[in-house]
Specification:
Order of helices and strands: HHHHEEEEEEHEEEE
Distance between the termini: 76 Å
Strand content: 15-25%
Shape: elongated
Helix content: 25-40%
Structural class: alpha+beta
Largest sheet: 10 strands, antiparallel
Number of strands: 10
């Protein structure tokens, strides 16, 4: 063989090193995609990573066809397998999240009965006015979706509900991970909805465990714009696929 050519079986040559680097990137991407899918339900990211890894690993393996088995070849096979698993898991999860949930929302979890909607105006609200409420239709969040409690009732009647796996700009979120916990700056309270109840609430935390956030649970939430909101869990759907909330938000914002 001429001295200026690389031995294709040499694992230390430039081409081999490039393949090893690409394979390492593929394995890292697979792991990152799996973590993102499990931790926050990032379906689009996981699908993109999985498909790209499958294509890249397949091309690298095609270049190894007929050559002696090397450690990098096994790494390519592992990367390809992880890519297939990641793509399949992301596709299955994405389909499960896009399935209609009207039956669950309407009927709820048989082991967690619904509660009555929030009552009307409280006499303790005299200093602050109610910015918006959910008198007839509750705020419904599916797993991985969040709402902006500061949203204007006229411009954003849907509370700006959106999928928030990769977005932290929300006031309340039904997480995909942790069994469907509620993520919000919230403090458990008792009593009817009033500004004074929320103004005097203590014990705030960043999340509410799923075994606590059940039908009948009440909490006060501090929004991103420093408003106070009263939240009542009216209903929890089967397997915590979604949760129905009654909400009262007051104006003006309070001093932080």
């Amino acid at each position: 063989m001429p001295p200026d050519q690389d031995d294709p079986s040499d694992e230390s040559g430039p081409g081999a090193k490039a393949k090893q680097t690409l394979t390492g990137i593929g394995l890292f991407a697979d792991i990152a995609g799996i973590v993102a899918l499990v931790a926050s339900g990032a379906v689009n990211f996981a699908l993109t990573v999985g498909i790209l890894t499958i294509v890249g690993s397949a091309l690298l393996l095609a270049g190894e066809w007929g050559k002696p088995l090397k450690s990098r070849t096994l790494a390519m096979v592992l990367s390809l397998a992880l890519g297939i698993v990641l793509t399949g898991a992301a596709a299955v999860y994405g389909l499960s999240q896009s399935a209609p949930q009207t039956t669950d929302t309407a009927q709820g979890d048989r082991s967690a009965p619904s509660v009555e909607p929030l009552p009307g105006e409280s006499t303790a609200d005299t200093a602050y006015e109610r910015r918006r409420t959910t008198p007839d239709s509750p705020l419904v969040l599916s797993r991985g979706y969040s709402a902006d409690l500061d949203a204007d009732a006229v411009r954003s009647p849907d509370w700006k509900v959106k999928y928030s796996a990769s977005d932290s700009s929300y006031d309340i979120l039904l997480t995909w991970a942790l069994g469907g916990a509620l993520s919000a700056e919230a403090a458990p309270v008792e009593g009817e909805p009033s500004f004074e109840v929320c103004r005097s609430a203590t014990g705030y935390s960043s999340s509410i465990r799923p075994d606590v956030a059940i039908a009948g649970f009440k909490a006060c939430v501090r929004t991103s714009e420093d408003r106070l909101a009263y939240v009542l869990v009216r209903n929890v759907a089967e397997n915590r696929r979604s949760i129905s909330l009654d909400v009262v938000v007051w104006d003006p914002p309070v001093a932080s």
